[in-house]
Amino acid sequence: MSITLGFLVVIVGGLILYNYFTQGRLTQQEQATRPGEPTITKTVEEKLQALPTIHTVVTGENLWKIALERYGSGYNWVTLQQANNLSNPDHIEVGQKLSVPAAEVIVPASDKMLATSTQQTRDYTVVKGDNLWKIALQESGSGYGWTQIAKLNNLANPDLIYPGNMLKIPGK
User: Fold this and answer.
1) The CATH number of the domain covering residues in 121-170
2) CA–CA separation, 125 and 134 (whole Å)
3) Contacts from 117-123 at CB under 8 Å and sequence distance 24+?
């Protein structure tokens, strides 16, 4: 029994030391952008004036969250993907440095977006290689309509669609 207790004390102590030393190595910018930490709120204009810059990815971030923080619009994730030549925008790693260029804020006009509540829908069969952005672009001319497709189909995870799935697409 005492050997087990001693082993647990050593493990817990090691974890505490590991966390202490790894937390101490964060830069001031990384500490200021850590999720859950209090930060000074800046206006969108102030954030845009600070661009271009470099952003270091922290735990729990994705391109949408970074774009929302840096541009005030998550739709600028495309700007980040293009600026960093990311072939897979869903794959960024903690500690990765991303270029955040100065760019116009992308805010889709609501009248151009697909309406899901008042218009008729049509069926669409998912084929290999499809994703919601691609489907929305093909069906409406704007990839930003992917959110309406996800909402209309009650998709818990819009990244999980498979060939053969039937999706409802808002009518034109």
Assistant:
1) 3.10.350.10
2) 13
3) 119/170, 119/171, 119/172, 120/171, 121/152, 121/168, 121/169, 121/170, 121/171, 122/168, 122/169, 122/171, 123/166, 123/167, 123/168, 123/169
Domain with CATH 3.10.350.10 in the chain: 27-107, 121-170
pLDDT in tens, the chain (172 residues): 778 877 777 887 777 777 666 654 444 444 444 444 444 556 767 777 888 999 999 999 999 899 888 988 888 899 999 999 999 988 999 999 999 999 888 877 543 444 444 568 889 999 999 999 899 888 888 888 888 898 889 988 888 999 999 999 987 6
Q: Are 123 and 169 in contact (CB under 8 A)?
A: yes
User: pTM for the full model?
Assistant: 0.45
Amino acid at site 147:
T
